[in-house]
Design goal:
Rossmann fold, 11 helices, globular, vWFA_dom_sf, CLCR, VWF_A
Length: 415
């Protein structure tokens, strides 16, 4: 794998800002992971499979989940480790974390076949136990991840969305990531997305039970192809300058630095991030924002890239008249509008349709001049549906689409 193949491109919408008034500018950061070499070089896996076996999982959902779990185990190597945790009202460790030897694989497959649906949904208990199992063996360079599948609302244990998101953030900082899989129409899509975003993993919406094996396959193929791990963007924020990042990334700000955790990227996978910069007025010649990209390869090699964006101070008239990059503005408004749409869908889910409509109205007024007609039509349609109210399936489909846009994911990446 060549480090030269790593793309870290930085550009701004316009390089001129005003001396006398605050100026809003945008920075676009484009990341692309290098192409992987041989499949044999994939990172080792330390995986906890955390499966909902509450009463609502009976029938096809549980049958296809068993099939998906068996497929996943068949793809693991002897140096990989796996644990199986199931939850309904109670949490049960079906198989402790250990290497996937042929004997252990056979034993796990027998236990999977014996699983039966139970009662309530102790999502937090099952997930935290799965993360604990991963933490017992986590190693640098390996994929240390809990794969959480649920088809219902968390109604036992910790149920607060923000609290679970905070736990996911803390676990990710300690090296244990989380991917979430929502099956059917009854789970909280915003909860599972928050957990995946804060947990540096992926979120999947599974609309039909028969899709469960395919979605598990996609997750496994992605993590097997990882070529960059623990990707972090560090931004030196100049005094009196405000920087916001749409897209619901995990961030931390302290001592004049803004740190963005991007997680892992598979071979040739791309992510785009946008910095909303509010530059202060000044008599200085320029404002400079320094960016540091840091990651490591599965082999443990550290990689860094640096870039500095320079904005020149001019008169307010010159700053207002400068030609801004239309393509960048179009791409930015896709992401920022997707974030606002996600917020509106959360409000709509809570029955706060008027607030959701006002939020979309304000965002679309700003974004429409830069959007192509097809995108604009889609968001006008979404606004109308938000005003009348969405059913569970519509809401999940709409939320999934916004998630893909925020995370620069292709439509075919998730089902």
């Amino acid at each position: 794998m060549s480090e030269a193949a790593i793309e870290f491109d930085v550009k701004c919408d316009a390089a001129v800002i005003a001396k006398t008034v605050p100026t809003q500018r945008l920075i676009e950061i484009n990341l692309r992971a290098p192409q992987g070499s041989r499949r044999e070089t994939r990172p080792d896996f330390n995986l906890a499979l955390v499966l909902d076996v509450s009463g609502s999982m009976s029938g096809d959902k549980l049958a296809y989940t068993k099939q998906a779990t068996a497929y996943l185990l068949d793809q693991l190597r002897e140096r990989d480790r796996a644990a199986l945790v199931v939850y309904d009202t109670n949490v049960r460790v079906v198989s402790e974390m250990q290497p996937v030897s042929p004997e252990q694989r056979a034993a796990m497959l027998r236990r999977i076949d014996d699983l039966q649906a139970g009662s309530m949904t102790n999502l937090s208990g099952g997930w935290l136990e799965g993360c604990r199992q991963v933490g017992l063996v986590q190693t640098t360079g390996a994929v240390n991840r809990a794969l959480l599948l649920s088809d219902g609302l968390a109604n036992v244990g910790i149920t607060d969305r923000e609290e679970l998101g905070e736990h996911a953030r803390q676990l990710s900082q300690r090296g244990v990531s989380t991917s979430t899989f929502g099956a059917g129409s009854d789970y909280d899509e915003h909860l599972l997305e928050v957990m995946a975003n804060q947990g540096s993993g992926n979120y999947y919406y599974i609309d039909h039970p028969e899709s469960i094996p395919e979605i598990f396959r996609r997750e496994l193929e992605e993590i097997a192809a990882i070529t960059l791990q623990d990707i972090t963007l560090i931004i030196d924020v100049p005094p009196h300058t405000a920087i916001q990042i749409p897209g619901e990334w995990r961030t931390r700000q302290a001592d004049g630095r803004l740190q963005v955790s991007i997680g892992d990227l598979a071979s040739e996978q791309q992510r785009r991030l946008y910095l909303e910069v509010l530059a202060p007025p000044s008599e200085a010649d320029a404002l400079e924002i320094h960016l540091l990209f840091h990651a490591q390869t599965p082999e443990g090699r550290e990689i860094q890239r640096e870039s500095t964006v320079r904005f020149e101070y001019r008169s307010a008239d010159e700053a207002n008249e400068i030609l801004r990059d239309a393509g960048l503005l179009d791409r930015y408004y896709r992401v920022s509008t997707a974030q606002v749409a996600s917020q509106a869908l959360r409000l709509e889910r809570e029955g706060r349709r008027q607030e959701a409509d006002r939020l979309l109205e304000h965002q679309l007024a700003a974004a429409m001049p830069y959007m192509d007609e097809n995108t604009a039509r889609d968001y006008r349609s979404l606004r109308e549906r938000v005003k009348r109210g969405l059913d569970q399936t519509e809401r999940k489909q709409a939320s999934m689409e916004q998630y893909r846009i925020k995370r620069s994911k292709d439509k075919d990446q998730n089902s």
